[in-house]
Design a protein that fits this description.
alpha/beta; Rossmann fold; 3 domains; five-stranded mixed β-sheet; four-stranded parallel β-sheet; 9 helices; about 30% helix; about 20% strand; binds iron/sulfur cluster
């Protein structure tokens, strides 16, 4: 079992104690599930009952508050994600987010990749919650090479909580400084956020990949994704029956956008249905006669769009049909 440092575990237990909860529901993403039993045992040693969620947990939006409440819990401990700056919907019980920074060293990839940054003087930094602690050291390192570094505050109404933090559904920390930079450097792992950032801004995005120790220019991948997106819109123009995907996860609650998309589709002579589910999966749509899907749930669904075997478009693409 990967162990949570003693100090952090003690702090977590005192937060739960302070909240006065007698029974706590604990959630963690797959990579941190190995810590659940340790947290559960520590809570119980402190006289607090613990219920450990075995459901997947994809992000800060993915709160199991309703079922936690049904099981008599008074507090939700959400491990591994930063809390939302602005919550779309009020959870059914108090939530404590316990962030888990991940160790990594950006210096090798950055040193080897400095050539890729040569043409850019003003650089905006962005990252995910796990690597926010790294922003200052990367800033200093780049400043020592003569770069001007900016870190955006995001939007006051946004979901991301910290300066420089981006989420798959909130790139405001980058868009808010886009006019003042020549390029962005995204620090993280996996290509989802780097690609999302490249799609959200009109400036070049370089991806400092902490897993593979590489620095990648996202331009060609951005173009490829745009071609896929526009091909889906073209196909959607000929479709009649639209399923509008809405997640029931407390933090997603994008229902207004879904209703607006339905009304727009109907005004164009299409048939549309609002389809609600927790995690969105192709097998849950079996038996429904649909030609096209509109994703009003997590943008990450785009990565798995091929599994649905029909075009999947964004709510804003409905305007283009
Ligand atoms: S909706 Fe998707 S991108 Fe936004 S916080 Fe949830 S999991 Fe992350």
């Amino acid at each position: 079992m990967v162990s949570m440092e003693r100090e952090r575990l003690d702090l977590l237990i005192s937060k739960a104690r302070l909240a006065g909860a007698a029974k706590v529901f604990v959630q963690a993403p797959e990579g941190l599930k190995t810590q659940l039993q340790e947290i559960g045992s520590a809570l119980e040693k402190a006289g607090i009952s613990a219920v450990l969620s075995c459901e997947p947990c994809y992000g800060a939006c993915d709160m199991r508050d309703a079922e936690a409440r049904r099981l008599g819990c008074e507090l939700l401990l959400h491990i591994g994600h930063a809390g939302f700056g602005q919550m779309a919907a009020k959870p059914a019980l108090p939530v404590i987010y316990e962030e888990c920074p991940l160790e990594a060293d950006p210096s090798n990839a950055l040193g080897a990749g400095m050539k890729a940054l040569e043409g850019f003087r003003r650089i905006g930094l962005a990252t995910t919650a796990q690597y926010l602690y790294m922003l200052d050291s990367v800033k200093r390192l780049l400043e020592s090479k003569g770069k001007l570094i900016l870190i955006g505050n995001g939007s006051a109404n946004g979901r991301a909580k910290y300066p420089g933090q981006v989420l798959g559904c909130d790139y405001a920390a980058a868009t808010s400084i886009e006019g003042r930079v020549d390029a962005f450097l995204f620090i993280g792992t996996g290509r989802f956020h780097a690609l999302g950032l490249a799609a959200a801004v009109g400036k070049p995005v370089l991806f400092l990949d902490l897993e593979n120790n590489t620095l990648e220019d996202m331009s060609s991948e951005k173009e490829r994704q745009e071609r896929i997106r526009f091909a889906s819109i073209e196909k959607a123009k000929g479709c009649k029956n639209f399923g509008i995907l809405v997640s029931t996860k407390t933090g997603q609650a994008n229902f207004k956008a879904a209703e607006a998309a339905k009304a727009k589709l109907e005004s164009k002579g299409k048939s549309a249905w609002l389809l609600a589910m927790d995690a969105i999966a192709p097998e849950k749509l079996l038996g429904l006669k649909l030609d096209c899907l509109v994703n009003c749930a997590c943008p990450r669904l785009a990565e798995d769009a091929a599994q649905f075997r029909k075009p999947v478009i964004r709510p804003e693409d409905v305007e283009r049909l």
